[in-house]
Amino acid sequence: MTLAAARARVLRALSPLHPLGWVSVAAWRRCSQAGPPAALPHGGYRAWQEQAARDPAGFWADVARGWLRWDSPFHTACQPGRPAGPARWFLGGRLNVSVNCLDQHVEKSPNRVALIWERDEPGTAVHVTYRELLDLTCRLANTLKKYGIQKGDKVAIYMPVSPLSVAGMLACARIGAVHTVVFAGFSAESLAGRIMDSGCKAVITYNQGVRGGRILELKTTVDEAVKNCPSIKHVFVAQRTDNKVHMSDCDIPLEEEMTKAASVCTPESMDSEDMLFMLYTSGSTGKPKGIVHTQAGYLLYAAFTHKYVFDYQQSDVFGCVADIGWITGHSYVVYGPLCNGATSVLFESTPVYPDPGRYWEVVQRLKINQFYAAPTAIRLLLNYGEEWVKKYDRSSLKTLGSVGEPINKEAWQWFYQVVGEGRCTLVDTWWQTETGGICIAPRPSEEKAEIIPAMAMRPFFGIVPVLMDENGKVIEGNDVSGALCIAQPWPGMARTIYRDHQRFVDVYFKAYPGYYFTGDGAYRTKKGYYQITGRMDDVINISGHRLGTAEIEDAMVNSKQADHPDVPETAVIGYPHKIKGEGAFAFVVLKEQTAYTDHVKEELKTIVASKIAKYAVPDHILVVKRLPKTRSGKIMRRLLRKVVTEQSNDMGDVTTLDDPSVVKEILDAYQKYKDKSSS
Ligand code: PRX
Questions:
Q1: Which of 66, 79, 188, 669 could hold 29 in an S-S bridge, CB 3.0 to 4.6 Å?
Q2: What is the CATH number of the domain that holds 230?
Q3: Closest to 585 measured CA to CA, from 499, 626, 662, 644
Q4: d(CA 25, CA 50)
């Protein structure tokens, strides 16, 4: 099927119920006030969906002209990727992202609250106005410049969420530097790998972090990481606690410098397609890849989806509890809300600190209107019972959102009925680091349209999903499953993998030429809604955090760095986990099986924590004599998944196995392991 036919399919799916009374975005924008509009225009969702599917370039051009503040207008809205690859958007246009997120709001309402920092210590929230955030951003930008950071330079931010870390991101945007935020739970080795790949010149960090009442030794981790990173010239160290940390010659006390710096910083005028940031994420093979997002298209898509998926209204308090170390934090804590002049909550703590009522106490105290969280947290909290929720007033809530992994029906119902009292819209949002913003979600849609529990359902404006069969053919009709692809470009999509464009093209555009392949499978229901069925590759999703099983395997095996000399081979698979969604299950082969085995297992866990992060540590490590392999030596992980998830003796077709007797061996070992763990 051609792109035009795919588009036509979306239009057909939309058209039967409503004759389209569509109105052009431009015409509507002309009669609306400056700044993000308050509501969908006449004709609503269907009108825009139709326009966006029929003429994506025209649709997004209209939106971009009205939504963003430009230094100079673009001449071409969309240049398709040739021969296969991502499109480029708003060519010739120039703008500054920090001006869109700050200055334009300071001009109109300087005292509007931009950020509410809900610090780990309960009841100590800090409010930061747009004027104050601009001041922080400019001082930080001038400090970076003073120490030689220029347009195009890369800066790592190794900080939990806070006004200073947001100012760090915006300061980079102001001077045209490129930030790469590294989740502050990643190990020194992971941080070093990202710094080396991106060639960062500086790191911004805190002396220490505070989470769940515990201290995180951030500066110590940075010291450990930068030992091996010659590109780093300076480490800017802010103070989150009063504790002293070791400071060397290249360490700069950040607040001290910012006090001395000027509070005005002329914004760099950036090309629409200049890099804004890169964010490392896992794939099924190799090391994490630096996904690159650019200026205008990303910002527009984050802001537009923030407005319409959550029905954000001016003066609402938007509470996305994600960390800025992930794409959700970038798009729906920082860039989307701030571009829309919203008040965005920065949640530094955990859902269970000091008790399992924390989220709802915060909702009551800060009067949060939109609450956006990961299913893993919801699953955790539902175990503690309803009392923790009902203790607090949640009447401010209007929209609830779920992100990052499939939400099971039980968690969805609890979120909807208990937290939202059955009166809030609950949106299960599907998207990826690569897509920049939400692509499939129940809203926006025509008013009061049905929402089916635990389903992302409807494509966003301009998103044309298609399902593919194994032969690369588009699957027509409803009640079908296949590989989820997107048929036409949208402005928020990533442009490349840093320093590896070929890998980008190969991973996302090669499997189904002419389409963006998401790596996920999906089911299209009888009514034409989309249900995500999970990854089709060796990527697992632990507590909403994406991880390649190969990364865990690489960390454990006896590689060149002799990670563990007793472990020549491992295979890691994902298995369903009640709270985390998925957990890692490792099968390992030891050189010698001795009484020493338990000790090796503990060592392996420590190695994974120190090479990647704590969340990557396998829940289970099962020692086996050998792994199931094909005659060409490829590990058949499919069989291992069957053993763990189905516990069935029927392994399907095993004719390609080198030695089929390995199946019984592994089943027996697994059974023994289970018996031992339950005794
Ligand atoms: O498998 C999908 C899953 O998370 C992957 C993207 O992970 P990441 O880039 O880390 O971004 C997470 C935050 C947007 C997807 O390929 N995923 C994300 N949202 C959902 C989901 N799976 C099911 N339902 C969702 N709502």
A1: 66
A2: 3.40.50.12780
A3: 644
A4: 12
Q: What pTM value is reported for the model? A: 0.92
Angle at the Cα of 572 from the Cα atoms of 571 and 576, rounded to 5 degrees: 145
DSSP state, 626? -
Nearest-CA residue for atom 14 of ligand 1: 432
Task: From the CA of 546, give the closest atom in ligand 1.
Answer: 10
pLDDT of amino acid 5: 56
Are the C-beta atoms of residues 236 and 254 closer than 8 Å to each other? Answer: yes
Mutate to test the pocket of ligand 1, among 435, 440, 532, 535 (most ligand atoms within 8 A of CB): 532
What number is the average pLDDT over the span 595-613? 87
For 331-357, the pLDDT digits (tens) are: 999 999 999 999 999 999 999 999 999
State the distance from the centre of ligand 1 to the C-alpha of 353, rounded, in angstroms.
26
- Burial degree of 501 (CB within 10 A; 0-12, 13-18, 19+): middle
Q: Could you write out the DSSP letters of every residue in 492-524?
A: TS--EETT-HHHHHHHHHSSSTTSEEEEEEEEE
DSSP type of residue 616? G
In a domain, 24, yes or no: no
The answer to whether residue 253 sits within a structural domain is: yes
Please write the tens of the pLDDT for every residue from 209-234. Answer: 999 999 999 999 999 999 989 999 99
CATH number of the domain that 594 lies in?
3.30.300.30
Question: In this predicted model, what pLDDT tens digit does every residue of 221-269 receive, in sequence order?
Answer: 999 999 989 999 999 999 999 999 999 999 999 999 999 999 999 999 9
Q: Is 566 helix (H, G, I), strand (E, B) or coil?
A: coil
Task: Say how many CA atoms lie within 13 Å of 476 toward its Cβ.
Answer: 7
Asked if 337 contacts 367 with a C-beta cutoff of 8 angstroms, the reply is no
Residue 347 included in any domain: no
What average pLDDT does this structure show over 68-78? 98
d(CA 155, CA 141): 12
Total count of domains within the chain: 2
Q: What separation in angstroms does the CA of 539 have from each of 174, 291, 521, 643? A: 35, 16, 12, 18
- Do residues 301 and 437 touch, judged by C-beta distance below 8 A? yes
Closest-lying ligand 1 atom to the alpha carbon of residue 428: 26
pLDDT at 34: 38
Q: Rounded mean pLDDT of the chain?
A: 91
Give residue 431 CA to ligand 1 midpoint distance, Å.
Answer: 5
Name the least confident of 6-20, 288-302, 403-417. 6-20
Name the residue at shortest CA distance from atom 11 of ligand 1: 432
| CA 385 to each of CA 93, 225, 362, 390, 391: distance values in angstroms, whole numbers, following the listed order | 52, 42, 18, 10, 11
User: Domain range spanning residue 216?
Assistant: 100-277
Confidence of residue 17 (pLDDT cuts 50, 70, 90): very low
Determine the pLDDT at residue 33: 36
Q: What is the Cα–Cα distance from 158 to 219, expressed in whole angstroms?
A: 9
**383 located within any domain:** no
At which of 277, 307, 331 does a domain end? Answer: 277
d(CA 438, ligand 1 centre) in Å: 10
Does residue 639 line the site of ligand 1, with CB under 6 A? no
Given pLDDT bands bounded at 50, 70 and 90, which one contains residue 557? confident
Whether 570 has a pLDDT exceeding 50, the answer reads yes
Number of neighbours of residue 243 by Cβ within 10 angstroms:
11
* Domain limit, last residue, from 277, 311, 332: 277
Q: What is the largest CA-CA distance in the chain?
A: 77
